[in-house]
Amino acid sequence: MASFLFLSLLFSFLHFTSSIPSIGITYSSTVSPPPPPFPAKVSSLISALKITSVRLPDPDPSLIKAFAPTNASLFLSISNSHLPALASNGSVALSWLRRHVLPLYPRSKISLISVGNTVLDSTTIQDFSPFLLPATRNLHHALQELGINKIQISATFSFFSTITTAFPPSSAVFQQPAGDLIIKPLLQFLEQTNSSFLINIYPYNLFRLNSEIPIGFALFQDNPFNFRDDPVTGIRYFNLFAMMADAVLTAMAAMGYQNIPVVVAETGWPSGGSQAEEVEANGVYAEMYLKGLVRHLKSGAATPLKKDGVAEVYVYELMDHSGGDNERGRKWGILTENMTMKYNVEFSSGAKNSGICLVAIWFTNWLLITSMNLILGFVGIQG
Predict the structure, then answer these.
(1) Is the CATH code 3.30.9.10 the one for domain 19-374?
(2) Each residue's pLDDT tens digit, 317-331
């Protein structure tokens, strides 16, 4: 009987074994194509940092090839300007894959391709949203035509142009009309192709828009006042990242697609602002955010609503660099422009075998209690 009870508990604990979300980094090249020594230098640097997932918004073939020796998982992005051509003709999708994927895969471990980035962002000059779905489908069909079945195809969205609210997360839905016209059919495509939903989550930007958010809540800091309770679900949130992630999961569930994995394509905290009033954009806060993010993800509780709701998270970005737009005017890198490390953060992660650990603890206690009972029983018999 005792043996049967132990085996039953063993299998019930094993059922709860979970994995820590993969933590990757974005590398944005300042020139395309990058000069010959540079791709190899960047790939060696990322290997030294023990980063196993890399997002390449500017996926030049020479850069993709340079990552082959590292065995790093690569997440490629296709710029919005390519969407009209990809949507209009399947041969364009084949041509893109023949240049960026076919000669390099599978030696370069390409696992995911995003068709466009934040196409719903209202700040963009041209509206690329009508081209998103046909371009995504054409690229998927082109991969199948080439006999490649292990690369996911998806599209990346911005939290602020996609989700209605961050708090309470239980009230979040996708903004309309894009929710029904674009996101819902895309979610259907992702479910059919076993792909992931990609979203950019920047607590820094939400913090700047809402003066009621405590800085400690945005920076994963532990103190008695750093929490918010969802009045509908009763879930208590201890950081802004988890709250925003659960808002995304709630919006997906409202459309009936709660089982699609979520990949956070970009997140980070700038060490320098593009405007003088951005006093919170500093190195101290940036390091606090990155350390808190890594600690939070390694705890295995990426979101309170769904423990495996976030499959991967990509930090933006590897290196500081100069740029023209507002986002690139800020300093988001974990390295300076001359590749000097700015923070002491350990990004490597691995499987979290919580079920195995619980079984080990339970089994130790079971042995101890059983031994004590046998001893006491023996003493009782002798007495």
Answers:
(1) no
(2) 999 876 544 455 689
